[in-house]
Amino acid sequence: MAMAGLAVQIYNAGGFCRVVSTKPMPGTQWIRALTNVGCRVEVCIENKTILSVEDIISLIGSRCDGVIGQLTEDWGETLFATLKKAGGHAYSNMAVGYNNVDVEAATRHGIAVGNTPGVLTETTAELAAALTLSAARRVVEADDFMRAGKYEGWLPSLFVGNLLKGQTLGIIGAGRIGTAYARMMIEGFKMNVIYYDLFQSTRLENFVTAYGEFLKTQGEAPVYWQRATSPEEVLKEADVISLHPILDKTTYHLINKERLSLMKKDAVLVNASRGPVIDETALVEHLKANPMFRAGLDVFEDEPFMKPGLAELPNVVVVPHIASASKWTREGMATLAALNVAGKVKGYPVWSNPNNIAPFLDEHSQPPAACPSIVNAKALGLTVSDGSAQQKL
Ligand SMILES: NC(=O)c1ccc[n+]([C@@H]2O[C@H](COP(=O)([O-])OP(=O)(O)OC[C@H]3O[C@@H](n4cnc5c(N)ncnc54)[C@H](O)[C@@H]3O)[C@@H](O)[C@H]2O)c1
Ligand SMILES: O=C(O)[C@H](O)CO
């Protein structure tokens, strides 16, 4: 059906309030989360990858209670003013990162901003691990070589890469994903870790200490952790560096020409956070000048584009922002985003622990009567639930 110029699919047409999703999202649990509380759901099915602000204004129309949007959209003053005027009070990104959202503008208009933490932690960490291995062991280069029919037989020096075992892992941004990735690499490859974050990660430190003790009981060399006081310390010491901070003013171009020059010549740099955390032009130059330096990138500074020269370089592995792309995670992200909006529409409190969103994802029981994660809850003075799963939708 065509509404306001853009094609939409409608669920529960007679619902008491109207919620728009700017994209079709995986699974059906998210649609039930909204229709179960009486929402009419309109899903934009227009065949256009990224909707413009004008497109979204037309989707919001003259009456709209809440919107679920995507990280590719520019959620700023214009859209929040439009949503407010249409009677809206809830927006959720279908993503944990919300650097595409002007949260201050939303707060000024009294609109709650939701995100989807937790459900993508392991999936994203696994892709960062895949990029690390691909870059360190030159998997994509070797695959290209095979397919091109260039393989003439085993050679002692064919595609020699880096061994991870016993090397030092560097983490910048040791939050949910950074810690999950570190645990995979430490347990899998017995790497030592040095990390930099604004906050101490006792979870990571305790894990490494306990795992080191376990290794000792097995007669193996223990692993160690170190908390760095600057990103520079991590860059100088680590053999593999993976970036997992949020994108904000403090992390924009955190990896620049000067900091790249501090890294080991044969280091591996992985980014599954946000593209602008790296000055990508500087990275292209660095990769050109240091053929043994390798990178694995899921995100890019000017998505969907790559900086000139990047695509031609053999010492970089590039994938199109797929770190959270597992079926379970994408369906879970959609469900959390829908429950953020459904909960706000119903006037529910905000879940007390966005690091424990599991109760919202069980398809076989009713989710708690709460919004799973609202980033401006405090600024809006929203009530926080006591965390008991007794209250049900
Ligand atoms: N590529 C993908 O598909 C994908 C998937 C999920 C998340 N992400 C990105 O990963 C980010 C992290 O997600 P998360 O769930 O781990 O979030 P999180 O909030 O748990 O972790 C972010 C960490 O970054 C730290 N940090 C903030 N500013 C910093 C700075 N200047 N220097 C060092 N550390 C700093 C924070 O203290 C926090 O520990 C998201 O914001 C998102 O942008 C990308
Ligand atoms: O921030 C996020 O959630 C991701 O980039 C989506 O995969």
UniProtKB/TrEMBL annotation:
> InterPro entries in the record, alphabetically?
D-isomer_2-hydroxyacid_DH, D-isomer_2_OHA_DH_cat_dom, D-isomer_DH_CS, D-isomer_DH_CS1, D-isomer_DH_NAD-bd, NAD(P)-bd_dom_sf
Q: Where is the D-isomer specific 2-hydroxyacid dehydrogenase NAD-binding domain?
A: 130-323
Q: What's one Pfam family the UniProt record gives for this protein?
A: 2-Hacid_dh
The record's section on Gene3D superfamilies has: NAD(P)-binding Rossmann-like Domain
Q: Which residues form the D-isomer specific 2-hydroxyacid dehydrogenase catalytic domain?
A: 52-347
Q: Mind listing the UniProt keywords for this protein, alphabetically?
A: Oxidoreductase
Q: Does the keyword Cell inner membrane apply?
A: no
Look up keyword Oxidoreductase and say if it applies: yes
What superkingdom does the record give? Eukaryota
The Swiss-Prot or TrEMBL record describes its family as follows: Belongs to the D-isomer specific 2-hydroxyacid dehydrogenase family.
Name of the protein described by the UniProt record: Glycerate dehydrogenase
Query: Which species expresses this protein natively?
Result: Sphagnum troendelagicum
Tell me the lineage of the source organism. Eukaryota, Viridiplantae, Streptophyta, Embryophyta, Bryophyta
